[in-house]
Amino acid sequence: MKSKYIILALVALSTLAFGANADSAIYGKDLIPNILGYDQKGSLHLGYYFTLMQSTYFKPLFLGVLIGVPAAFLIHYLVIGPMVFSHDRKKIYVFTLFNRIVHAIAAIAFILLIPTGLIIMFGSTFGGGTFVTACREIHAISTLLFIISVFPMFFMWARWMFLHWDDIKWLMIVGGYLNKDKKPVPAGKFNAGQKTWFWLATLGGVVMILTGAAMYFQDFRLEILASNGISQIDFLRASALIHNALGLGVTALFFVHLYMSIFAIKGAIHSIITGYKEEEEVEILHSSYYKKLKEKKEI
Ligand code: HEM
Prior knowledge:
Helix content is 69%, strand content 2%. It is mainly α.
């Protein structure tokens, strides 16, 4: 018993002495888990992976996304440039008022969630303390906004988002974004890129909400965990790993979404504000949808 406390004290001291980098050495598979009983039989044995990812990989990966994705877009913008469509033809009504309100709530939520999430991730760089704690609370409150929007968003758009042959063809030509030819691109109301973003933002978003809630509340008991031999600490570790891994994908695709909406297609952002898209944009970038609208004599 005595030796258990001595080892714990040594671990605490060496963590203080060596900082975060010492974590991976200390929380190796053998020492801490056995002492604290965290890695006991029947648990997920996540201690080692949790420490490795949190202390070594997640920060550089997030930095990679923060720098790499905008850099790739800057190159795209400078080399290929934005797509520009005629504003002299008709406009096609594509997003209802309800669509736009739900989307606006999700957008506000993300504008708060992403920077505050990054500040939490790089908390020590920001000096910790009140600023980071305040960001954690803003992160939690903006999650409520996201909860309000994610379910209606899922139901209002899901029927358009299932895989279609057009999506394979769209992927083969990278959506036509590698040149500025105005050749009709195979896509329905939403293209393969937009569908990917939809599924990640909605289904992935719900998983982010659940894993985030687990980390925020921490001290709760779920009978299903205990009955399956999963320790609370392992559940929290799994939540952190999933939350951060999904957060990487969501952040990267959110940047893609912003680039496409604001820069890559000139004026595209107006559609989610007014509900209308330029006819030429629909004809070229959503050619299958355009054909259907024509067949149905809706335009
Ligand atoms: C400031 C942030 C945002 C801006 C400027 C923005 C802009 C846009 C625009 C312009 C469209 C219409 C695209 C088109 O069909 O041409 C759109 C659609 C959409 N947005 Fe956003 N959006 C933002 C945030 C978000 C967030 C946070 C989510 C999800 C959580 C989201 C999910 C979607 C989805 C699923 C669509 C339909 C599919 C697509 O176009 O990708 N957006 N958004």
